[in-house]
Each structure stands twice: as C-alpha cells, then as structure tokens.
Amino acid sequence: MRRRLPWLVWAPTILLVLLGTVGLTVTTWSGPADLAWAIAFGLLGLASASTGAVVASRIPHNAVGWILLALGAGVGWLFAPEAYAELSRVREAGPLPGAQWAAWVGSWAGVPVIFGLTTFLFLLFPTGRLPSRRWRWAGWFVAVCITLATVAVALAPDEIDTGYDNPVTPAGEGAELVRWLLDITDLLALPVLVTAAAALVVRLRRSRGVERQQLKWFTYAALIAGVGLGGGSAIPAGSAADAAFLAGLLAVAGLPVAAGLAILRYRLYDIDVVINRTLVYGALTVTLGTAYLGSVLLLQLVLRPVTQGSGLAVAVSTLAVAGLFRPVRSRIQAGVDRRFFRRRYDAARTLAAFGVRLRHELDLQALAADLRNVVHDTMQPTHVSLWLRTDDRNDSRTTHQ
C-alpha cells in the first residue's frame, strides 16, 4: 500500500495543477508574459509530482521523494484557489461561494510550498536526512521560520493580492503584532536560504563516489536556476532580462527532475559531460557574442564613409565570428579541462606525449615499460600486466607492475 500511495496522490495532483495554472492564466491574462509564467510553474508542478511519485514508490524510506510529491501537490493547491477566486470576479461567472476564502488560501500557500519545501529539499538531498546530528538545529530553525512566516502572511492585515479582504486578519494591537512578525520573517528569509545552501555545500565537500555525483546533478540544476533568475533580476528590463528569467524558471522546473535522476542513479556519471559542455559553450557564446558586437560597432565606425549605411560591417563580422568558432572553442575547451577537469587534461597530455614517443621508440622493452607507466598514470589501476606475443606462437612474455 505504501508503494501505491504516491500514485494515488499523483493522479489528483496532476489534475489540480492543470486546472489551476490554466484557469489562473485565462482569468488574469494580460500578455505573453503570463503564458511563460504559467508554463514554467505548470512544468514545476507536473515535474515535481511525477518525479516524486516515481522516487517515493521505489524508495519510500527516502524523504526526498515525498517532498517532491508534496511540492507538486502544493503548486496545484497554490494556483487552483487563486483561479477560483479570480473566476468569481468575472462578470459572466458571478460571485462564487467561498471565493474570499479561496483567495485567502492562495495568498499564503506559496510560503510553505515554494519557499518551505524547496528549502527542506536542499537540507535533506540526497539521503533524505540532515548532513549529521549537529544539523538538527538547522532543521528546527527552518521549520520555525517557515511556520512563523506562513502565519504572518495568513493573518496580514493588508488586502489580498486578488482584491479580497483578509477574512481572518486581527484588529488593533493584533494587527500591529502581525506587521511586526512580517518584518521579522522578512529578515529571517536570507538566513534560512543561507542555511539550506550551507548544508548542500557541506555535503558536497564531504561526499565521495555516488553521493558526490548525485550532488553534482542537483547543484548543477540549482546553479542554472540561480543564474537565470539572478540574471533576469540584474539585467535592465527588456527581452534579454525576460529570456534570462524564463530560463531560470524552466531550470527551477528541471530541479525535481535532476533530483529524481540523481537518486535513481539513472545515467549518473553523465553529469561531468553536461557540466563540461555547459562551461565550454556558455563561455563560447559570451566570447563570440562580445566579439561580434564589438566588430560590428568598430567596422561601422571605420567603414561608414565608404559603405554609407550598408550591411557590409554585419556581413564581415558574421564571417569573422564563424571563422573564429573552431579555434576559440578549442582554446576554451583546453582551458576548462585544465581548470575544472584536471585529471582528464593530464591524461590527454600523457597520451599525446606517449604518441610522440611511440613514433621514435624502437626498443620493445623500453616501449613496454613506457606503456605500463602511461596506463598507470592515466587510469591509476592497482595492478598492470602486459602480455607480449612474439613470432613464435608458443612463446609469450608477461611483464608486471
């Protein structure tokens, strides 16, 4: 029954996410940006629920699967009441019963769902337990802060975002106490996030083998999300900022998928290749984009008297950047390998040096010793044996190291 329970929760969760995101988008439509938000949060809910159901059904003792499943259900619980409240304000639908309470639920549900569950995901990934017993204080600290923040937002005396009055807000001194609690919890948000990030960093530094690869998958997705959301906030408003922010939202939606793949150990060791390609092509895009813009501006300034506004500068810059693609990529690849993948870089240099010596070495014994050294340096085995076949089929030699 415990293995079937995640799927019993998954089915209504998927329906709730779809109804909530689609309904809220239709009732509050103001432009294409709303569609991007709906897609991003819809993917987050669907990916979290589906990944959580798979992990919880296969590894029920790991809390990460249940957190992901709760995150997916929480996204549906967050958007479905808001969509219902917005639908009640549509003239054709008319006032709907309980719309004010639905708007109230949607106003505070995001704190425990988006903020709380994501924080605990950072604290408990990948084992489902805290890094050590010494981190119990961190778990209680996060739980208390999230509870206080949820209560403060739920009792906030201000008007709910959807235009409804808060039905449970206190009056008089109670309202002042709630405002004070809101200010305190706003200040505690950063320490909570720092605590969660510190737990992930501690795990990564202490981890070895499989757990280290699991943390690489999760940290990679988290960094992509952070860079996208941070870039969207830092870049001046425009298409570039919108694209960066959308990429960050999509990366957030990919976070539960990365967590599920890591826990289930599916293609676990491919993360090194993914990270390598991301570093290389990210740096390559920035380098070539900067070179292209710089060359266009420079050539337009130099050739303006000759070209008189024609597209010659753009054409020349495009051809120049196309010619730079391969050599620049090779340089960046070598730099990334040398800085972040040193073992692979040293192994490639060792094999290249051995290939040069191989063309000039004639002594078989010296070649055999050199080959054993290369295998030992690049693959680092505990034992090396080299079998040499001579002209006589009944005669062979084996050398050891």
Topology:
Layout: H1 5-27, H2 32-58, H3 63-88, H4 99-108, H5 110-124, H6 136-154, H7 173-206, H8 209-234, H9 239-264, H10 271-307, H11 312-340, H12 342-358, H13 364-379, E1 385-389, E2 396-400
Antiparallel strand pairs: 1-2
Keywords: Membrane, Transmembrane, Transmembrane helix
Transmembrane segments: 7-29, 35-56, 63-81, 101-125, 137-156, 187-205, 217-237, 243-266, 278-303, 309-328
- Please name the CATH topology of the largest domain: Rhopdopsin 7-helix transmembrane proteins
> Reading side by side through the largest sheet, how are the strands ordered?
1-2
Radius of gyration: 29 Å
What is the CATH C-level name of the largest domain? Answer: Mainly Alpha
Q: What gross morphology would you assign? A: globular
Transmembrane segments: 7-29, 35-56, 63-81, 101-125, 137-156, 187-205, 217-237, 243-266, 278-303, 309-328
Keywords: Membrane, Transmembrane, Transmembrane helix
Provide structural commentary:
The protein has 401 residues and is mainly α. The protein folds into 3 domains: 5-266, Rhopdopsin 7-helix transmembrane proteins (Up-down Bundle); 283-340, no CATH class; 344-400, no CATH class. Helix content is 76%, strand content 2%. It has helices at 5-27, 32-58, 63-88, 99-108, 110-124, 136-154, 173-206, 209-234, 239-264, 271-307, 312-340, 342-358, 364-379; strands spanning 385-389, 396-400. The protein has a two-stranded antiparallel sheet with strand order 1-2. Strand 1 (385-389) and strand 2 form a beta hairpin. The longest helix has 37 residues, at 271-307.
